[in-house]
Amino acid sequence: MPHARFSGPEAVAARETKFAFWASMGDLLALVMRSGAPQLRLRIGVALVLVFVGKLSGVIAPVMLGDAINTLSPAAQGGVAIGVSFLTLAISFAALRLVAACAPYARDAIFTRVSQSTMAKAAVESFGHALSLSLDFHQTKQTGTLSRVIDRGARSTDFLIRSLIFSLGPTFVELILAMVVMTVRLDWVFALTAFGTLVLYSVVTFRITDWRLSHRRDLNEAENRAAGLSNDALINYETLKAFGAEDRLVDAYGGAMADYVDASSKANSSLNLLNGAQSVILNVGLAAMTVMAGYEVSGGHLRIGDITTAIFLLSGLYAPLGMLGFQYREIRQGLIDMEQMVSLKTIQPDIMDAVGAQPLPPASGKGAAIAFDDVSFRHDARSSGLLGVSFEAQPGQTIALVGPSGAGKTTAVRLAMRLLDPQEGRVLIDGVDMRQVRQAELRRAVALVPQDVALFNDTLYANIGFARPNATTEEVRAAAAAAELGPFIDGLPNGMATKVGERGLKLSGGERQRVGIARALLANPRLLILDEATSALDGPTEAAIQETLRKVKAGRTTLVIAHRLSTIVDADQIVVLRRGRIVEKGTHAELLAKTGEYAALWRRQTRES
Q1: I need a surface site. Which of 183, 242, 309, 575 has the fewest CB within 10 A?
Q2: Crossing angle (nearest 10°) for helices 246-298 and 188-235
């Protein structure tokens, strides 16, 4: 079943993704409500109350200061008399300023648990959904891009909550309260002047910020190019040194850094223009407000303290606007990041548990019965996959798939693990169609040793024990010994606690394969799949592993993909594939007697040996 293709953030930015603001806010609210934070509704309610109280205190405080100044009266000696009213109002002013300053801290202390829980919930949901997606998705994804989408999408939730709900939203509330106070205490002209100043400030900020986006994008691209060159050179230093290309790479890196310097200069110049324009608008507005208040005082319509009230009210509105350009740009990017994360979660996996999926029948202790019943599967990117393939393995039998590259062997393995579903026909395990079995149970019943074993950047013990986390230390060591890893582990300074490096790169190819075999043996599966599991081993080790595999085949069914036919001569059935079709089936002796495709492959490999 086809599914939506996933595009990385770079592609989204390149085509200027259009996002629906209110739909994104709905997604964010839904995420907050299922964040699982303790006392969620109480924390939200208290945080919103603190936001309103803080902003209201910030608006009333300048009024108190203005009234305090208005209570001052000349003293007999030519000074100023300070009365109880002044002291009361001045203390009230300081107290309200303190409340306005401390309310955000109290709000953050109460709400941080919610925002962090929301971020964690977003990350866990996206990560879990990505892991649930089908093989086709993971074969076409860019791992770095996908991890950035999850990380940036999760982090964007915290930024959007703080910026929209606790910064820009309260600033809008504060603007309304300030305009009401100006209209009641001063004059509607003051409110109109403040509103006009802020509107002009916002429009200029948004326009210049939109213009700056191209400069910022050029800066990011230049930085990415320089980082990419540096990373490639450091990772592939052996190739670099082998061809004496140090100077060439340094020159390329220097050119990338020169582009970065040019882009950085343009970005900084445009930023300075933005900051300069903002400063001009705000200071002109403040000057206009001050002059207007002065004229009103001189005309007897206002008192001197009202000038202070007007200046402090406007200055209080200016304070949160200093980061408006940055927040506008980051909110836009945050909405895009969150939308990418939400879009990721709309992709449905191809392989899903059927409604009413059933558990596997109880294990017989002899292995699983596996049957391909007229199975066909065609890949999107290939002309063929499997066409009408039928074969059967009884419990405890070993069945081998051979054939040239592209014959369909790997496709058959993926169908046997239900990483793919057949487009026609059925794959059965113990008589049950795999599509009717719960995936979790099927995964426990099947184990794979791939040709290229990938390991986690962890210890040998953790990598072997990954197959069965509840296994005892003795069971893990026994699996390692069965895979001929015992002498190797005993010779390591840290033994089973040795770190294997990223993807196991600290180990040789043969050592990785033996770890993969140990991991599969520890899983104790009904069906053991060996995809060229000894291809990276030397002759003596391969012989020892083959002997081990012969022993561990007891009590389980084995499906083997082999290019070296000498490793499957004792298979109960050999299936020869070509271009997705079965051309021959039988035992080693039967196929040699037919003098067909298998016999030709055997003769060729024998001559090469």
Answers
A1: 242
A2: 170
Six token digits for residue 220: 């990011």
Q: Which residues contact 358 (CB under 8 A, 6 or more apart)?
A: 432, 436, 437, 438
Tokens representing 255 are 């050119």
Which CB contacts under 8 angstroms, 24+ apart, belong to 269-277? 270/208, 270/211, 270/212, 270/215, 271/212, 273/208, 274/205, 274/208, 274/209, 274/212, 274/325, 277/204, 277/205, 277/208
Contact 252, 272 (CB under 8 A): no
Q: What is the DSSP string of 344-378?
A: HHHPPPSS-PPTT-BPPPPP-SS---EEEEEEEE-
Paired tokens of 400: 């081998």
Strand partners, 400: 560, 574
Pairing of strands 446-449, 527-531: parallel
Determine whether 88 is exposed, middle or buried from the number of CB atoms within 10 Å of its CB (0-12, 13-18, 19+). Answer: middle
SS3 content of the chain, % helix, strand, coil (to 5): 65, 10, 25
Q: How many CB atoms lie within 10 A of CB 45?
A: 12
Per-residue pLDDT tens over the stretch 185-235: 888 888 888 888 888 888 888 888 778 777 777 777 787 778 778 877 887
Supply the pLDDT for residue 74.
56
For residue 505, which phi and psi values (nearest 5 degrees)?
Answer: -70, -10
Helix axes 509-523, 473-482, angle to 10 degrees: 130
Q: How far apart are CA 55 and CA 172, in angstroms?
A: 10
pTM score: 0.66
Edge to edge, the sheet with strand 386-393 lists 386-393, 370-377, 424-429, 432-433
Question: Is residue 575 within a helix (H) or strand (E), and if so which, with residue range?
Answer: strand 573-578
> What's the CA gap between 564 and 539, in Å, rounded?
12
Which stretches of 80-141 are assigned E, i.e. beta strand?
80-81
Spatial separation of the C-alpha atoms in residues 222 and 234, rounded to whole Å? 18
Contact assessment for residue 77 and residue 137, using Cβ atoms and an 8 Å cutoff: no
Measured distance CA(340)–CA(294) in Å, rounded: 53
Which residues of the chain have a pLDDT value below 70?
1-20, 73-83, 135-136, 138-145, 322-323, 325, 380-384, 533-542, 544-545, 548, 551, 608-609
Cα distance between residue 378 and residue 423, in whole Å: 8
Nearest to residue 542, comparing CAs of 568, 571, 519, 520? 568
Strand 557-561 vs strand 80-81: parallel, antiparallel, or unpaired?
Answer: unpaired
> End-to-end distance of the chain based on CA atoms, in angstroms?
45
